[in-house]
UniProtKB/TrEMBL annotation:
Domain PKD: 102-155
Origin superkingdom: Bacteria
Biased composition (Pro residues): 13-22
Region Disordered, annotated ranges: 1-42
InterPro entries: PKD_dom
Natural source organism: Agromyces mariniharenae
Stated name of the protein: PKD domain-containing protein
Amino acid sequence: MGAPTVGTDTSESPPPPPPPANCSPNNLTLCAGDPAAPQEEPAAPIVVTLRDIASFRPATPGNGMEPGGWAVVGLPANFVAAASVEVVSGTLLGQPADVRFTPVGYRWSHSDGGIVESGSPGATWDALGQREFSPTPTSHVYVAPGEYTAELEVALRAEYRFAGSPWRSIAGTLAVTGPPQRVLVGEFDTVLTRGDCIADPSGPGC
């Protein structure tokens, strides 16, 4: 018996499948593979809403005025809000995240029916370089004596970010309210005097 010999497979490999009939240099996608093969769906972008950030609580805005807590009939009382950009940390969609709140609008609702809206929080007369009882963009004039309230609402724009990511905007604005400001409004009469009524209480006009 002779030594075994190693045979070789002389059969040819099956030819590759023909390209799609509509394959052409102008349709390279079809040339690259089977157009009927399932394609992977792109990942849907994350959409964060104001409801998703409900656990991120911005600070309550301050609701101040001058003169402090009182006003004069027919003269402007100046209202000033205290609100600023604030970053609050927490968990968003199961991940550590930051939410940044930026004030974009201010609205004072007065119990006499007056509404004052402004894009700024207002400023004191001193900061504005104005005399006391001067009109300002956030002032209000009461026309009758009595006790009133002024309620402040601040509109906040919200943005979020995960660790290392840029800030991304959230559609809409969030409204937060400050404590109501009590305002006692009275009438004041001016009287002409000849001198200092403290030094001379019995003087004319005192």
